[in-house]
Amino acid sequence: MSEMATTSLSESSLREILVDLAAQARRRRFEVAPNPCVGAAVIAGGQVIARGFHERWGGPHAEVEALAAAAASGVPSSSFEALVVTLEPCSSHGKTPPCTDAIRSSGIRRVIVGALDPDPRHRGAGLKLLQEAGIEVEFVPRSSEIDRTAPHFLRWVDVDRQRRPRPWTIAKWAQTRSGQLTPPPAIGGGRWISGPDALREVQLLRGRVDAIVSGVTTVLHDDPRFTVRPPGDPSRPPLRVILDSYLRTPPDCKLFTPPGLGEGAGPVHILCQAGANAARHVALERAGAKVTGLRSSEEDHIALRDVQEWLWEQGVRRVLLEAGPQLLSRHLEAGFVDQVRVYTGAVMGGEGPTMAPWLTRLRFAERLDREVADDAVLESFVLPSE
Fold first, then answer.
1. How far is residue 63 from each of residues 85, 104, 265, 341, measured CA to CA in Å?
2. Closest by alpha carbon to 173, among 376, 341, 378?
3. Whose CB has fewer CB within 10 Å in the chain, the N or C terminal residue?
4. Which one, of 334, 294, 1, lies nearest residue 135 by Cα?
5. Domains: count for the chain
6. What global pTM score does this model have?
7. Residues 251-300: tens digit of each pLDDT
8. Residues 141, 3: contact at Cβ < 8 Å?
9. Which of residues 150, 185, 216 is at a domain's end?
10. Catalytic amino acids?
11. Are residues 73 and 176 in the same domain?
12. Domain C-terminal end among 93, 124, 150
């Protein structure tokens, strides 16, 4: 692999393209995590004719999007000079096929990268496959370093995390302006804090995770269904996982209601303490749940580390934690939250404990504050406690 070979663009021009792609890709960081933010562009006649970005977790990668945009541009593929990409193309099969396959079949004869894959298991593998296919590979150093564009990905592939793997967990909750997670009884039926636009965002998020995790207290209080409805993708409903130490989940709760038209509902899993009430176990399995006993912790709850390992064994890689303050606090205390999305509705007052103490002491990274209609939204990655 050469650091720079002859192209129709100078090194400074290529560096400028890579820096711009990395900046645009970074805007998608909360949608793609734990995957890295990646941008790609196809060059023809010394000009960028198409761009592509990894838009959402589980969706097409930047290289595939850029190549598709180039194919639709009207520029003949014989004129494609190079594919510029901020990060080494992936070479393994995950949620999508390897990008190296798409590049090799595209006819592109030159690939220019701004950073190597930081994962030691894959570093250099994608470039080697491209070179073996006769594709010229070039490297523009110091143009899109991963520690600037996607530091969250470095935490995801950290050696210690690989040694004891666990899913990427996004904690989502809605709170009133005074910090309560339950609104006053006269607001939203004592249940809804967020407005309809925020609720639609949550449906999108639910369709982009492998599992939704909640606790039995939420089931008893709200009787949720945790389904995916449009604008979310109902065709990929996540597992619905309830942590219920003593099997208090009612067999007639709405979790077991068949999905409606255009709605997606993943399998229901109830995780309890090993040896929990046998009659309740049978009743819940008859209702449609899969019940699994796990080790209990010193606090007489299911051990969260065992929950994390169980999720990983099921193939779960991205989790949405939709729970009450107790279970949220336990995950935060254990360091099992990687990302937060907090909706603050235009509601004063409320009932129950607040998450405000956690919000004041968490170590946030790459925080984004935005608005959706009347709701304020905080999105951020969470750094390990010092």
1. 7, 11, 32, 28
2. 341
3. C
4. 1
5. 2
6. 0.93
7. 999 999 999 999 999 999 999 999 889 999 999 999 999 999 998 876 77
8. yes
9. 150
10. 63
11. no
12. 150
